[in-house]
Every structure is written in C-alpha cells, then in structure tokens.
Design brief:
The chain is an all-alpha fold. 75% of the residues lie in helices and 0% in strands. Helix 2 (31-43) runs antiparallel to helix 3.
C-alpha cells in the first residue's frame, strides 16, 4: 500500500514538473504578438474616435519602424545624439 502511494506521488510530481517546464510565458513575445497586444490594450482604453485613431497610427508607425528601420549600431548613435 505504501509503495502505491509513493509511486503515485512520484508520478504526480513528475507530471507537474513536466507541465511547469514548458510554460509559454517563459519565452519573449514576438514583434507580431507585441503589436497585437498593443492594439488589444488600445481597444480596451475607451478613447474617443479621434484619440483612438491617433494612438493606432502611432502603434502602426512604431511597428513599421521596427521592421523597416532595423538600426545598426552606427545609426543608433546618430539618432540618439
């Protein structure tokens, strides 16, 4: 009887450890996921139509800059300085 309880505890522990090891939140979000999260958060803010359009355009611009304007270390110093 004790061995059955010990075996079930070992199996339960191994199962829980396996589930916790590959949790999807442990990985960084992709650029596309970040963009979608930003748009979802914007839609929940309850802004007026004009404010919503302004913020959406800002998010879209930042997405385009991230994709198109992949800055090299040389251009980063020029834009920051």
């Amino acid at each position: 009887m004790k061995s059955a309880i010990a075996l079930s505890i070992v199996l339960l522990t191994a199962t829980l450890a396996g589930c916790a090891a590959n949790h999807p939140e442990n990985r960084p979000y992709s650029a596309e996921e970040q963009h979608e999260l930003a748009l979802e958060a914007l839609s929940r803010r309850g802004l007026s139509f004009d404010e919503y359009q302004r913020e959406r355009a800002r998010i879209e611009r930042s997405e385009t800059e991230q994709v198109i304007g992949q800055r090299t270390p040389a251009t980063q110093g020029q834009r920051e300085g």
